[in-house]
Structures are given as structure tokens and as C-alpha cells.
Amino acid sequence: MAENVNVPNDAFQPLGQEEHLDNEKIAAPSLTFTQDAWRRLKKNKIALISMWILVAIFAISLAGPVISPHQPNNAQPAYTNLPPKIPGVHIPGLDGTKSVDGGRVDAYEQQHVPANKYWILGTDYLGRDLLSRIIAGTRVSLMVALIATLMDLTIGVGYGLTSGWRGGRTDMIMQRIIEILSSVPNLVYMILLLVVMKGSLLSISLAIAISGWTTMARLIRAEALTLKSQEYILSARTLGESSWKIAWKHLIPNMSSVIIIQTMFTIPSVIFFEAFLSYIGIGIQPPTASLGTLISDGQKNFQFLPFQMWYPAIVLMIILICFNLFADGLRDAFDPRSRE
To answer: Per the domain annotation, does 46 fall within a domain?
Structure first.
């Protein structure tokens, strides 16, 4: 047994009142959930850079009618298949020259193009400015993605909330409907709808949305099943709140992170589907430009004029990569358990 040790009274000196430490003081600033998510997102440099790249692409595509150097559908048969040319730049591929029989020749001089005329990304087989068509095509692809995503949100969130909140037989029937729809490949729906309605902005958006809302509905249903047993939901029901008010005031705000993240993953998949449908000829119809139609047109001359396919393909690749990186960053930012 340890011996008792007597500590002398002068071994301790009490602190003065002004020296008392406030151990209960909160050093970190008080943040809302959204502010904390934004703080986490800012620490993810890759996601932040991707976000600003997407903002720039959206801004350029929306301002396209103002900043485009030429009309995207304005054909000039005298200036067909011209390579890119930037005045003052003497780099092969950007100086207006093209490879012929192992050497490089000035395509602008061969086609007697005036000295003050040039096309930064070249022209296509009809003499249309490729840069202007890429800007217009990006705008069309983004519009299709936004319209289809809005439909996906409206149908998916409403369907999932109803299924999860009602439960029981209603939930069972609604989930069997989703399983039937999911058993048919998405491409079959799209092709059938586009054959009937022809390729237009609204018809493609509708075709993609009709076959793509089931993932959102399942996620929202799972969240609704979890949230409806929480104490604050039970309290609201006890106080007589209607199901509509509970969904609008409690369920949807608490599902916001899931909705935002799934939306960010939905947009690039919609853009890819639109590009694919336009590429195989059942999407946006010429002369309207989209990234898919531009890649399809460029693929026909890829062996001799690869720039006509490379530039729209690079833009499409950048959009898809940035959306996926940004969605990954949002998922980490909205997850409180993610490591910083």
C-alpha cells in the first residue's frame, strides 16, 4: 500500500482572478451546415478548380451569341476545311498550315483567303467557324443537361418522397414500378421516344429524364424512410402538421446534400448521353450544333483533319471530368465524417 505523501502548502500558488482560464470558451467560430460545407469544399483544391472551370464554361456558352467571332451556321464554301490559325503564332497546327505529302503548306494561301481573315480553331467541311460551333454546341449540350436534370429532380424527388413517406403497400407498388422501368435498358427508351418525337432540345431532354429519374427516386426514398422516424418528424406529426409541410420544411432540407450530390453526378451522365445520341444520328439534328454532332462530323475527316474532332472532344472531356471532380468534392464537403 502506498504511503501518504504530505504536500506542503507553499507548493501551490493560486491564480489571480484576471488569470483564470475560460475552459468553456469555444475557440472555433459558430458555422451553419452550409458554411461548414463551403469551408470543407474550399480546402479541396481540385474540386474548387473544377468548379471555376465549369463556371467559365457556363459563362462563355451563355455569352456565345455576343462573343462568337462568326455565326455558327454561316457556311462559306470558299473557305472549307481550313486549319486553325492564330495571328503571330508560328506553331504547327496553329499557324494555318497543314501537312501535305510529308511537308507543311499554307492552306490559307492555297485557298486565297484574305490576310485579315482567320479562324482560331479552323473551319469545317462547309466553311463554318469551328470555334463558334463549339461554343453553340456546348450551350445546347448544357441546356439539354439542365432541362433533363430539372425533370429528374421533379419526378425523382417527388416519387421517392411519396414512396418513402407513405410506406406499406404504396411503397411496395411504387418500388415494383421502378424495378420494371429499370429492367429495360435506358437506350431503348431514348431511341423509341426520339424516333416518335424526332431529335429536338425538348424531346432529347424528355427522353433522358424519363429513363434517368429512378436513381434519384431510390436515394430519396431511402432517406425518407430514415428521416420519418426521427423525433422532430414525430413531433411535427403530433402537432398536426400536414404531410406537405413536413416534407417541405423538414424532409427536403435534410435531404439537400443527397439531392445536390446526385444532381452533380446526373448532369455529366446526361451530357454524355446527349453527345452519344447526337453522335449516332438520333439526337440533335443538323444544322444545330451540339458536342455530339461536332464529334460525329469531325470523325468523318479525322484521318486528314483531326482538329475537327479533337477540339469538341476535348471540350466534352473537360466538362465531364470537371463535373465528376466537383461532385466528388461536394460529397466530401457535405459528409461530416469525411477527414480534412
So the answer is: no
Query: 173 lies in a domain?
Result: yes
Q: What is the DSSP string of 27-61?
A: -SPP--HHHHHHHHHHH-HHHHHHHHHHHHHHHHH
Domain CATH code at residue 267: 1.10.3720.10
- Domain presence at residue 296: yes
Within 10 angstroms of residue 87's Cβ, the number of other Cβ atoms is 10
If we measure between CA atoms, which residue out of 114, 116, 108 comes closest to residue 81? Answer: 108
The CA–CA distances, whole Å, from 251 to 20, 166, 234, 301 equal 45, 13, 12, 53
Domain membership flag for residue 16:
no
**Burial status of residue 253 (CB atoms within 10 A of its CB: 0-12, 13-18, 19 or more):** exposed
Tens digit of pLDDT for each residue in 188-235?
777 777 777 766 777 788 777 777 788 889 989 988 888 888 888 888
The stretch 306-312 carries a mean pLDDT of: 90
Give the chain's domain count. Answer: 1
Residues in contact with 67: Cβ distance below 8 Å, sequence separation at least 6, in sequence order? 60, 135
With a cut of 70, say whether residue 126 has pLDDT above it: yes
Q: What are the start-end ranges of the H helices in 4-129?
A: 33-43, 45-62, 64-67, 107-110
List, for residues 23-70, the tens digit of each pLDDT value: 555 555 666 767 777 888 888 899 999 999 999 999 999 998 888 888
Closest of 300, 293, 314 to residue 72, by C-alpha? 293
